[in-house]
Amino acid sequence: MTDIVEDLKWRGIIAQTTDEDALRKSLADGPITVYAGFDPTAASLHVGHLVIVLTLRRLQRAGHRPIALVGGATGLIGDPKPSAERQLNDTDTVRDWTGRIRGQLSAFLDFEGDRPDTAIMANNLDWTADLTAIDLLRDLGKHFSINQMLARDTVKSRLGGEGISYTEFSYVILQSFDYLELYRRHGCTLQIGGSDQWGNITAGLDLVRRVTGNTPHGQAHALTMNLLTKADGTKFGKTEGGAVWLDPELTTPYAFYQFWLNSDDRDVARYLRTFSFRSHDEIEALERESAERPAGRAAQRALAEELTTLVHGADQCAAAVEASRALFGQGDLATLDRATLNAAVAELPSASVTELPTVVDALVATGLVASKGAARRTVKEGGAYVNNVKVTEEDALLGADDLLHGQWVLLRRGKRNLGAVKLG
RNA sequence: GGCGGGUUGCCCGAGUGGCCAAAGGGAGCAGACUGUAAAUCUGUCGGCUGAUGCCUACGCAGGUUCGAACCCUGCACCCGCCA
Fold first, then answer.
1. Three-state secondary-structure class, residue A48
2. A24-44 pLDDT, tens per residue?
3. Which nucleotide is nearest to A325 (CA to C1')?
4. Among A91, A147, A336, A357, which residue's beta carbon has the most beta carbons within 10 A?
């Protein structure tokens, strides 16, 4: 069995763990069961979640049993953020999102068979839906000290700010109960999560210890992962269009591929270490390549292709690569064959029109700019392109000779924002 | 409960009757340079409109005025100090 702790350290993933030697030993002694929870706060997971999901995958590959927990119950309550109270989502929405996220998670782990490392899917609604108020207060509440709960950073910052509802204040009890239930049901002895989850996870450890005395499954552990940061100080996983989702309906495979391809040189090595399943040697070779010849973006390409394949499949990845080549290639768009063009354009935001519009209207129709004023501004600034040729006339009209294969016009704002207009 | 201060555009923040779509900074966007990167510099940054017009906007509702982000009244929320 590979030393998974060493591997995770090499990747720079580990933020904090409880007793590291004890954790290392139990991981080495045999398969353990590990869980991570995902609350349905949106219709899809996003790239930030990949850090955790893929760590579960690594642990499974190292022979351990992963449990993917979807927070059908905790998603109804809301993990308190340091800044402000969350808006509650209605129960139907949460149920729908729970199902979607469950589907996404199932793609990253192996649930087939009945081996010691076969993954388990769980939903905390299963053990909280029938929990009575009396049970909650007697069996769980008695183990939680208000003094300790008040001392938590998130709670402190909320008390100093806009306040916190009893609902969110109680969230930690439910998450702790999850760990307890998974310990009892599946002998789960490790919970992993983002570094912001440290408090919730250790609260769960306390509950497990108090209720079970750490028997019969032994000591339970906690491991948190560094949240990815970006060299330019902005938040990882966001683009102009918002979060980068795993759901192809929300973020196309093309956009997903482009997101990774556009990684900052200074960040790409860390991303590779965090996400890639390539060998250490291969990753180090890519790092050298990137340092010596950054313009080639070998590391970005490798990262983008690996993750797009993992999340969307080899076919979708190949299509995204092909589309990127076609759309950003220096070649003449008019020489592209119809099939390649159609496939490329399918990846872009597009608009159908019945007659050829002005460039300004076309930019608005495809959603490349927010308003006509912004579109005019873009043209004036020289940031508008038709079929990769800069537009200089503010009131330019698209003409029949702009049509590619009699049907498409490719629009671009700036260097890398593409859209298409379809006639007919 | 009392007294005082505050609520401005995506964020921070100036503005105390007309010259205010509102200084300045940040974020965003575009250009130059490049590599679909970063940094830097420049421009831009409510909407509609082929040009100084219209609409929307300075917590909410109403009022005064030829004219209000700016004055008055009420309400909501936030922050201090005192009980």
1. helix
2. 999 998 899 999 999 998 899
3. B36
4. A336
* Percent of chain A surpassing pLDDT 90: 62
**One-letter amino acid for residue A100 of the chain:** R
| Non-local CB neighbours of A48 within 8 Å, separated by 6+ positions | A194, A227, A228, A236, A237, A243
A230, closest nucleotide (Cα–C1'):
B38
Which residue is closest, via its CA, to the C1' of B37? A264
- Model pLDDT for residues A147-201, shown as the tens digit of each residue: 888 888 888 777 766 677 888 889 999 999 999 999 999 999 999 999 989 999 9
Which whole-number Å values give the CA distances from A235 to A48, A136, A185, A239, A415, in the listed order?
10, 37, 37, 9, 22
Dihedral-angle region of residue A386 (phi above 0 means left; psi in -120 to 50 means alpha; beta otherwise): beta
Nucleotide B25 C1' to residue A393 CA (A): 34
List the single range of A327-331, A350-354, A362-366 with lowest mean pLDDT: A327-331
CA–CA gap between residue A306 and residue A299 (Å, rounded)? 11
Of A300, A335, A293, A301, nearest to A321 by C-alpha is A301
B29 C1' to A413 CA distance, Å: 10
Closest listed residue to residue A144, CA positions, set A199, A222, A219, A214:
A199
| Residue A46 CA, nucleotide B44 C1', distance (Å) | 32
Residues lining strand B at under 7 Å (Cβ) are A 161-163, 231-232, 234, 240, 258, 261-266, 294-295, 297, 300, 324-325, 327-328, 364, 370-374, 377-378, 381-383, 395, 413-417
What Å value separates CA A134 and C1' B76?
37
Q: Measure CA to C1' and name the residue nearest B38.
A: A264
Query: How distant is C1' of B6 from CA of A164, in Å?
Result: 23
Q: What is the C-alpha to C-alpha distance for residues A278 and A297, in angstroms, rounded to an integer? A: 17
pLDDT at A84 > cutoff 80: no
Residue A228, helix vs strand vs coil:
coil
Residue A1 banded pLDDT, cuts 50, 70, 90: very low
Phi, psi of A154 (to 5 degrees): -60, -45
The residues, ordered by sequence, that sit 6+ positions from A30 with a Cβ below 8 Å of its Cβ are: none
Is the full-model pTM beyond 0.80? yes
| Strand B nucleotides in reach of protein CB atoms, 7 A cut-off | 27-32, 34-39, 43-50, 78-79
> Count of CB atoms within 10 A of residue A384's CB?
28
